[in-house]
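Fill in residues.
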């Protein structure tokens, strides 16, 4: 007697939602059910439906994943498996039913598309929350650094942590004295070569702020993504003084 096989692929929940296994809120006992899949031509597994339905039930009772809309996907997967098993058990025409099941699976894939978009939006929200937390931590640290700097002599100051995301390339470009191509090209090359500065980090400067060169000041503007109150006509000494004052005066820090 020929061995009954699956007429189409039945993907796992983990294939539909790749992050579910890595999610620390996902109980370990659900991993096997979430990773279970069946390939077209694979022998029928009599335990597959039971496992799929149990996984769907566990997901329905677990509130930690409700926002990711995984539960409905798990239910649909269990239904797909039960339809396949029922067709085989009651001797239906597997040729036509196989085509129908593939069409059903395509329909399920289309239904999953908006769910995946929702999941992507959740990832963006989580990233934004994490970034805002880093900004808050940097601002708290800077409050202490500024208090420390106000007790120090000129130039001997601690550097603030970066608290504004992104690079300040455009800010630095707008503050370049004159309109010559050379400095503009040099600034662009420097900014492009600089790794994306992370909130909470500090730049590397091996000498006093009062000895900063124009190029080093431009690097600080790009790194911190802030202009320090500098104006385009300001000369080098004025720019140094603005940065030193900025690193001392908490009220100059624009959050």
């Amino acid at each position: 007697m020929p061995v009954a096989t699956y007429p189409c692929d039945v993907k796992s929940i983990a294939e539909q939602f790749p992050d579910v296994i890595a999610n620390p809120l996902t109980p370990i006992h659900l991993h096997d059910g979430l990773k279970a899949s069946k390939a077209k031509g694979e022998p029928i597994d009599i335990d597959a439906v039971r496992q799929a339905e149990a996984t769907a039930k566990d997901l329905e009772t677990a509130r930690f994943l409700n926002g990711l809309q995984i539960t409905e996907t798990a239910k649909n997967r269990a239904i797909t498996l039960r339809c396949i098993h029922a067709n085989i058990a009651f001797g239906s025409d597997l040729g036509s039913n196989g085509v129908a099941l593939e069409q059903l699976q395509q329909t399920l894939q289309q239904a999953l598309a908006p769910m995946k978009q929702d999941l992507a939006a959740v990832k963006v929200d989580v990233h934004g929350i994490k970034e805002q937390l880093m900004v808050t931590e940097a601002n708290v640290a800077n409050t202490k650094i500024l208090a420390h700097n106000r007790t120090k002599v000129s130039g001997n100051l601690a550097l603030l942590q970066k608290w504004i995301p992104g690079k300040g390339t455009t800010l630095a470009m707008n503050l370049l004295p004159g309109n010559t191509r050379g400095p503009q090209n040099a600034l662009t090359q420097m900014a492009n070569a600089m790794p994306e500065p992370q909130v909470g980090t500090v730049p590397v400067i091996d000498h006093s702020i009062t000895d900063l060169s124009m190029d080093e000041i431009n690097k600080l503007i790009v790194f911190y993504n802030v202009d320090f109150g500098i104006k385009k006509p300001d000369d080098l000494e004025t720019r140094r003084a603005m940065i030193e004052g900025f690193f001392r005066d908490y009220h100059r820090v624009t959050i």
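The CA atoms of residues 164 and 255 lie 7 Å apart.
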